[in-house]
Design goal:
13 strands; 46% helix; 467 residues; alpha+beta; single chain; 16% strand
């Protein structure tokens, strides 16, 4: 997806895709407790109901399916007992049940969007919808969609409830300090070697003439489609977005889909069947045609064209970055000052070229977890040394860069002043775990929960048996 804000891959491995895809569930509607007990008793005999949490039930077969899903995804179930697996299923059910009690809203449109994404992925992986239906042992596509919808809604409710609990947890500097002081010296965390890195980027200039050529070509495509030509065919033949070329430029999106702002703004202004005028993003120029509007979800096609960069522009960009490097080495200007005044990368320019670690959102990169391409550029640089200019091509665009290491942090035992951000994160996670534990203690007491048969002998982490 050439116009995403950042590299984004949907979690579509089968285990994550459907961690409880075949988990049977049913909402009990009866209000009278005696009637509920009668219904539950009958279900237990027929369906093997082993537990009830609020309005949700758990079948004995759900545990078997959970084990199968882990192994199907390449995971190990060694050491995981049936009691432990049941405990996890009970947690999920309580989250979902309480989400309903707390009036957490999960829209049908959002669930349908999630369902379509997953079904499309599985059809692509297995080859046909019939194979997906057979895999999940459903009689019809309608049955499959109904099951998917119910399971995804429960998963989403559970996820939102868990998020609500931890999002409300904050930590003060005093709590961080107390957390650190309470750690015995022998148990202090050990952090690996890290470094801070900065870069300057120079992009070849694209002339207005070259931009206009692309705009005119896209306008020509629009006119041809409005006269009866196939937008999909045009996209297959001409789009420079490799992520959608094979599907004729097709995407599904809602307002939360991580496409760049300009793309979303144009898309949501269009009516069904309407084609946009050419517009520009950081990735090039686009036209969009909206095929269907389903609530807050759009089904659309787009064509992306990137203006040609002339050899003259490429040569001038290379000469510019070589001159910048020379001025820094000659101490006419610092690296940070040069980044702020000459770099074409707006994300790092204001911070003197400092790169932000996308995993931690701070400026430190742990060497063992650093992106290999970045590591290869900086691993042999000495302190304050500036790399030779090099060219990179990302998402179809060529740029020239120089890079430097601004700070090195050797592997070390945790130090409160130097590692405050990491220590704060550890302290916050511990506080969140305690908050979740407290939440379970409270909600288990308030919620109707019943464990049946041999599973009453399980030694659960949470007090599901209310002893």
């Amino acid at each position: 997806m050439k116009f995403l804000k950042y590299n984004f891959a949907l979690p579509f491995c089968l285990v994550i895709l459907f961690s409880s895809a075949a988990v049977a569930q049913e909402i009990i509607k009866d209000k009278a407790i005696d009637k509920v007990e009668e219904v539950r008793s009958k279900r237990q005999k027929v369906d093997g109901v082993i537990a009830t949490v609020g309005d949700y039930i758990v079948l004995d077969s759900d545990i078997d399916k959970s084990f199968l899903e882990i192994t199907a995804g390449g995971g190990s179930v060694s050491g995981i007992t049936r009691c432990q697996m049941l405990g996890k299923l009970l947690e999920d059910k309580l989250y979902a049940h309480q989400a309903i009690q707390d009036s957490i809203v999960v829209s049908d449109a959002e669930i349908k969007g999630m369902m379509e994404e997953r079904l499309n992925y599985m059809v692509e992986s297995l080859g046909s919808m019939d194979k997906v239906i057979a895999m999940y042992k459903k009689g019809t596509e309608e049955d499959l969609r109904s099951t998917f919808f119910d399971v995804l809604k429960e998963q989403k409710l559970s996820s939102e409830m868990g998020k609500k609990i931890v999002d409300g947890v904050e930590i003060t500097p005093e709590e961080v300090r107390n957390y650190f002081k309470a750690i015995p010296k022998a148990d202090l965390p050990f952090f690996g070697a890290e470094m801070e890195v900065a870069q300057i980027v120079v992009a070849p200039v694209v002339t207005q003439e070259d931009k206009q050529k692309v705009i005119d070509r896209l306008k020509g495509f629009k006119k041809e489609v409005e006269a009866g030509a196939s937008f999909s065919t045009k996209a297959v033949l001409y789009t420079q977005d490799p992520g959608s070329r094979a599907t004729g430029g097709f995407y599904k999106m809602n307002r939360k889909t991580p496409f760049v702002k300009e793309f979303k703004e144009v898309a949501f202004k269009l009516a069904e069947g309407e084609i946009s005028e050419p517009f520009e993003t950081d990735f090039g120029f686009h036209i969009i045609m909206v095929e269907k509007i389903k609530g807050q979800e759009l089904e659309l096609r787009h064509i992306l064209l990137t203006p040609t960069v002339t050899e003259t522009s490429i040569r001038e960009a290379k000469e510019k970055i070589e001159l910048i490097r020379k001025r820094i080495i000659d101490k006419e200007i610092t690296f940070a000052e040069a980044a702020r005044t000459t770099s074409d990368e707006k994300e790092t320019r204001a911070n003197g070229g400092a790169l932000i670690n996308p995993k931690t959102q701070d400026t430190r990169f742990e060497l063992t977890k650093m992106d290999p391409s970045l590591y290869s550029r900086v691993s042999n640089l000495k302190d304050q040394e500036i790399s030779q200019p090099f060219m990179e091509e990302e998402q179809g665009k060529k740029t020239f860069k120089i890079i430097t290491v601004t700070n090195r942090i050797d592997e070390h035992t945790a130090d409160y002043s130097k590692d405050y951000i990491k220590i704060k994160d550890l302290a916050l996670k511990e506080k969140q775990i305690k908050a979740v534990g407290k939440w379970f203690d409270e909600k288990i007491k308030e919620t109707y929960i019943k464990i049946n048969g041999e599973y009453r002998d399980c030694a659960f982490t949470n007090n599901w048996l209310k002893k």
